Amino acid sequence: MVNSLQGVFPIVNTPFHPDGSIDHASQDRLVEHLLEQGAHGLGLFGNASEGYTLSAGERIDLMKRITKRVNGRVPLVASSGHTGTDAAVELSKELGDLGADCLMVLPPYYLKTDGDGLLHYFTAISDAVSIPIMVQDAPLMTQVAMPPALLARMGREIEQVRYVKVEAPPTPSKITAVVRQAGDSLTIFGGLNCQFFIEEWQRGARGQMPGSDRIRDLVSIWDDLEAGRSEAAWQRFSRILPLLRFELQPGLGVSAQKHNLVAAGVITSPQVRHPTAALDLDSVAELAWLRDFADRD
What we know:
This protein has an 8-stranded parallel β-sheet with strand order 1-8-7-6-5-4-3-2. By secondary structure, the protein is α/β, with parallel strands linked by helices. Helix 3 (85-97) packs parallel to helix 4 and helix 9 runs antiparallel to helix 10. The mean pLDDT is 96. It is built from 12 helices and 8 strands. The termini are far apart. The protein has a single domain, classed as Aldolase class I (TIM Barrel).
């Protein structure tokens, strides 16, 4: 089985004007910035995108706009999970038709189902699309547990399920278990803002999906690991780890990423949409210090 997706796929933040409307000019700059930083692909409508705050129309408009701007330069992974199976099928078909190269799919998390129900949900989506599916294993967000044996079964039995994004701590040991049970039927990506990037790569992960604000560093770490330069990878990772750790505070990571992108001159405003939390002034000052620390030679 040949898998084409690997590397660093940032989840693209959605910039907003201070009034909460989408800042399309900043969105265009951010996409170009991520490509210039060396991103191997882009993730759309994930948690860092505040996809949970976007209307259906906004999601469609952004998908069209980003697909046109990227113009096939890198693959696009679009989040299409939903609380209902029929709605997830409809959204997945729509995003595939609009240019997604892969679908990242959360399990249903409002009314939770069992293993058979999860197989039904992902099979229904697979039967409706012609592009790969990435199962998003994110129990901290969904409270839905998907054991390695279930993920491996999905990879073997569901045609389009070819990837899994493991965000179930401890992620390194979960990745080892999935690799052992799934073999080459699944390619594994990491998430949770790359906090265990190197350990996950060592355990067999072939991609990472962080936020959008430190992509040059993370691509350099990926390149070092792929080239066997583990010490260089650890040195760079250790420099940015305090910043990644800061961004993992529940509810504050998106705001922190946006403040960093404003400081870099990429987007205009750090505005977030409720219920996403905004950083207080003390946190903004702490973040600036960490950003400076990460940029020191």
